Amino acid sequence: MNTPVVLIIFNRPLLTQIVFDEIKKIQPRQLFVISDGPRNEKEKSVVEQTRKILEQINWKCEVFKKFSDNNLGCKVSVSSGLDWVFSQVEQAIILEDDCAPDRSFFSYCEELLGRYKDNKKVMMISGDNFFSEKSQFSYDYCHHSLIWGWATWRRAWKQYQAASNPSIDLFEKKYNDLVKLVSNRRLSAIKKTLEGKIDTWDYLWQYTMLLNEGLCIYPSINLVKNIGFGGEATHTKYRTFHSSLSKKSIKFPLLHPIKIEANKSFDDLISRTYHPVYSLLDVIFHFFR
After folding, report:
1. Any residues with CB less than 8 A from the CB of 222 and at least 6 apart, and which?
2. How far is 241 from 18, CA to CA, in rounded Å?
3. Is 236:188 a contact under the CB 8 Å cutoff?
4. Distance between CA atoms of 57 and 131, rounded to whole angstroms?
5. Distance between CA atoms of 97 and 177, rounded to whole angstroms?
6. How many CB atoms lie within 10 A of CB 84?
7. Which of 32, 123, 149, 268: disulfide with 224, CB 3.0–4.6 Å?
């Protein structure tokens, strides 16, 4: 694996071990590890235990560590960590400690990173497909960013740096254009993040893509399973249908779409079902239409 891999960890050693074991199988030449600091004295030992998993690296690998002594919070820890990564490399595959990938996920990302490296319309590659569209191609495009296992380029992440400074005025000015791309439910979450009511980085990444009308590639099948649902999680404390999704292998050679344009039906489906508050009828309608 020639593409750098980024692993984002914190205080869940058991989950981190599972994801690390998958990374170990493909033996990346470069591994970047981002770890937030403990929130209190009690948490120090488990954070340290999680970080010690890196001592299991037994292949030729250049390891870069960004370990915070203090707790920065989800938004600052991840965003500043990815700033650090992309100050050193042009592209990377990114996994959090609860995102267990199929082995084919890495080759899928590496191939598409090469194919779209100069195409500014495509801003990220996702390993997720919550609804496994029946497509004649290996992947498609949408306006939603699905970040449970993903990849991107420095050129795209630079846009995040430019858009991440909260500006409610800009958001309000662009709202009528943005709502044509994603649901107002998603935009409401973005607004709360801009106002500081939600401590996360991923809604701002979604916002960055929307401002640039960027596209996310999603695979024809689900390549990454989120194993982190439960009380210890920051944002996935309650189980939804996402928690029961399995991961599968994608077939090679990949079949590439002829046109680079958003799949409107998939965008609409994600808009209705991606958030914790979604309509079960929407899901049933999708599978039986």
Report:
1. 127, 128, 129, 130, 132, 245, 246, 247, 248
2. 21
3. no
4. 35
5. 35
6. 14
7. 149
Q: How far apart are CA 278 and CA 276, in angstroms?
A: 6
Residue 156, classified by CB atoms within 10 Å of its CB into exposed (0-12), middle (13-18) or buried (19+), is: buried
Going residue by residue through the chain (289 aa), what tens digit of pLDDT does each one get? 899 999 999 999 999 999 999 999 999 999 999 999 999 999 999 999 999 999 999 999 999 999 999 999 989 999 999 999 999 999 999 999 999 999 999 999 999 999 999 999 999 999 998 887 667 899 999 998 889 999 999 999 999 977 767 678 889 999 999 988 888 888 888 999 888 888 889 999 999 999 999 999 999 999 999 896 554 545 444 445 455 678 899 999 999 999 999 988 888 888 776 554 444 544 444 444 4
| φ, ψ at 85 (rounded to 5°) | -60, -50
**Amino acid identity for residue 173 in this structure:** K
DSSP SS3 for 34: strand
Distance of CA 185 to the CA centre of its chain: 19
**Tokens describing residue 125:** 């590659």
Q: Alpha-carbon distance 36 to 52, whole Å?
A: 14
Name the strand (E) or helix (H) holding 93. strand 91-96
- In whole angstroms, give the CA distance from residue 171 to residue 175: 6
CATH architecture of 5-160+212-262: Alpha-Beta Complex (3.90)
Angle at CA 213, nearest 5°, toward 118 and 3?
A: 35
Whole-angstrom distance, CA of residue 216 vs CA of residue 10:
26
Q: Answer whether the bond into residue 253 is a cis peptide, omega within 30°.
A: yes
